[in-house]
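Entry for phosphoenolpyruvate complex. Fields follow.
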Amino acid sequence: MSDSRIDFLVQPGGALVGRLRVPGDKSISHRSVMLGALAEGRTAAEGLLEGEDVLRTVNAFRAMGVRVDGPRAGHVEIEGVGLHGLKAPAAPLDMGNSGTAMRLMAGILAGQAFDSELVGDPSLSKRPMKRVAEPLNRMGAEIRTEEGGRPPLRISGGRALSAIRYALPVPSAQVKSALLLAGLYAKGETAVTEPAPTRDHTERMLRGFGYAVEVSGSTVRLSGGGRLKACRIDVPADISSAAFFLVGASIAPGADIVLEHVGMNPTRVGVLTILGLMGADIGIENARESGGEPVADLRVRASRLRGIRIPPEQVPLAIDEFPALLVAAACAEGETVLSGAEELRVKESDRIAATAAGLRALGIDARETPDGMIVRGGGAFRSGTVESLGDHRIAMAFAMAGLRSQGPITIRDCKNVDTSFPGFVELARRAGLGITIRGGR
Ligand SMILES: O=C(O)C1=C[C@@H](OP(=O)(O)O)[C@@H](O)[C@H](O)C1
Ligand SMILES: C=C(OP(=O)(O)O)C(=O)O
């Protein structure tokens, strides 16, 4: 987590070939550590993501007295302290770049007997937190934000929480999860209704830890006062990390890769649906169930993509994949229209603005709209420099553009790739991308 900047330099051409496994799912990894810490007994997980975001979650629990062995080579063991066994941290808990860590931790900390504070890096410090603070305060928590609902979050302990029924104003698995986690500490039944399906890893994993969770239609319910029992977890490869290779192999002439053990949770496969509509050639092999989550190997071969109107209902199911999908759109014949995706403006960067600017820097006709983008594709990228704005997904998406570029591409400020995908450069290079790291500015 050094301050030195790095850039990526990507040479034009190449193809992606071979078999590879991308690192563990970030959403599932955060939740494994959180529920493992709050459970009774020793939880063991395999395939955990050792990205900086997840390490922030690990360190936060260590600072609250939880023993965590590892992670090493994806293996971690957590000595759970039970729902009421956390200790007051001596200093603010630093969630780094991670929105998931900050919002889910807010739900957990709202139910503790001690005061706490959640802080983040400059990117996280700009992101909206009222979306969790407001409903948690309605449950009886006392969470104060900075001006404009931004971090830090100052959480007063010792409040008795009562369950609420809450309709999420925006589709957000992070807000849903924060409320469910606070609901473990609340008197009565917490009910969260979503306007559209979002990732359901919290619901699945709570059940894996022996906690009763009821799902009917778009509403999730649980009652406070139960216990979590330690379990074993197998974390699948992250489909959001696989997405870069799904796009890269689709746009690179001659590409043929297999991505192994990819998480195929139905609330996460929007990227496959959207690429499928664009004409991508993705085969699903060896579909199986592993530790409560569906997984499969994905075989991807180069294909001619066509522009589409992205169905708005797919947006929450592919929410982190749009930087990569829009790079694919730039290589597709005709126009691609993304709408209903205003949430992209409040991620690690404004991903609509950052992706449109990056595409234009590489000679592509990309027009921003308030809630999406219109991209005219079909040609190749030209040589240029893309500002990632410190956003890991912007950096990795534009690295793949090199596969269809007429000249080298420089991508600036890429060190945050380590938040979600440590080893990206090595893995991409081994698969055939001409990518190197430059000590930046
Ligand atoms: O719950 C999660 O693990 C996540 C939910 C999504 O955020 P929102 O809930 O803000 O949409 C996603 O963008 C993020 O990368 C991970
Ligand atoms: C939005 C993301 O993560 P987070 O909200 O956890 O920072 C992401 O990984 O793309």
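NOTE: The chain has two domains: 6-18+265-282+305-439, 26-234.
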